[in-house]
């Protein structure tokens, strides 16, 4: 431990990140690293056994301010990562499908309001006590009243039917409730105290926390009583470094895995592979969907934009923008083009996408709608209104700034002027109903799709920032959310994007200008074999830790 602390002291800059929230768009996780690499890093060479792993995975957690408590954010929400210490009822497989973990199966009542989950009977917590359905019920009932943002608002209560079955009673049917069961780690009723649990957690997962040096590192050791496939790595030391500092640590050979910033995509490190893993991080521009008629939000912010409310503007941008050029130019090809925000999800609808990079077609859309440059200043106008609007982005995030600049430059060629405003999130939220915003959608929970496109009041939350309202789409979203049939839910999520006539996607209402989905970038010691990472594993690189090995059978001396 002493050597690691010395290394951290030499490296210098440590950041921390609060517990996760259940949200569709994240204004902190995707921000740029707060630290910076300061020249060269000089650290003494370290050695460790081949079955010991040192990682710095900023997206996995950063450092949880409230400790390793799943009821206060550890392992849940938009980050959605393997909690290591606690077990979850369900997991996801390599293809992203939900599979059993503690659960042996589940069923939902015909009305979708009662879910029954059967639980294994061979699981013990690390203190030797048996895990039962009572612990599962306690975990979720406590989550209802916790101060976390797990969003258990639709859960009436959980009840242990017997030692191996728990019943979840919902206020309303909710097909997306499966994701709550997927991400909440189970805590022991007999040993849970909110004030102290996070610092000394007891769980039934593959690892147990043995040491937490706040602001520096956490050390996990293998849980010998783990019921599932036991990982090869018996010890994991998790460092809490920002991405740039982590890159410096990798260059010095002090970590096995380091999440690094996209700006390092084309660099190399001796003895490391630079890999990119897919994720759910879709970046796009939200458009105010209403005209400015003088209405205000609940807190007095202006609603409406007479330019972006015109579907011709939104359609033209979606058609004329060259997403592949943005992908290659801004994020070095480390990701994919994006059209609906959920292209990579099982509930994404390919029919909702369009063919882009067609400036001539985009110009025709504008001309046909009456947007013409009559005064020769390069900006189109219609009925005395210039094709001009503001685009807000987080000034702390260089990637979002670069994406915004790229969109602005391409829009200019279509005769649309986009004025960029880099600022803080308070100001962004205050202007989201009257101006475009560069947001990131970063969750695979289907409930967030409902929140993003279903009609809502102007309540100044970042969900549905354009105040999109379409009764047909609302119907699909409501059906998808309320059905107890997951296949029917997926079909309706897809129809909400495009049903052949209407939808939130660019083929129909073009509510957003989605741009790219950005991968997570990691420097990985070449001796580490990561097996087959899960689909969209970028934000949960440790999700398949059970498959990881080190190619050297002997102790590995770091470079």
Describe this structure in words.
This protein has 559 residues and is an alpha+beta fold. The chain folds into two domains: 50-276 and 518-550, D-Maltodextrin-Binding Protein, domain 2, CATH 3.40.190; 280-516, Dipeptide-binding Protein, Domain 3 (Dipeptide-binding Protein, domain 3), CATH 3.10.105.10. Helix content is 22%, strand content 21%. It contains twelve helices and 25 strands. It has helices at residues 2-11, 133-145, 177-183, 243-251, 311-320, 323-331, 359-368, 398-412, 425-431, 447-453, 471-482, 486-497, and strands at 47-48, 52-56, 90-92, 98-100, 103-108, 114-119, 155-162, 165-170, 207-213, 217-222, 235-239, 257-260, 272-277, 282-286, 335-337, 381-382, 385-386, 388-394, 417-423, 436-441, 512-518, 520-525, 528-529, 549-550, 556-557. The strands form seven sheets. A seven-stranded mixed β-sheet has the order 9-10-11-2-12-22-13. The chain has a six-stranded mixed β-sheet with strand order 15-21-14-20-18-19. A four-stranded antiparallel β-sheet has the order 5-6-8-7, with helices on one face. Helix 8 (398-412) links the parallel strand 18 (388-394) and strand 19 (417-423). Helix 5 runs antiparallel to helix 7 (359-368), helix 10 runs antiparallel to helix 11 and helix 11 packs antiparallel against helix 12 (486-497). The longest helix is centred in the C-terminal third of the chain and has 15 residues, at 398-412. The chain is globular, with a radius of gyration of 24 Å. The relative contact order is 0.17. Mean pLDDT is 86; it is low at 1-24, 26-46 and 553-559.
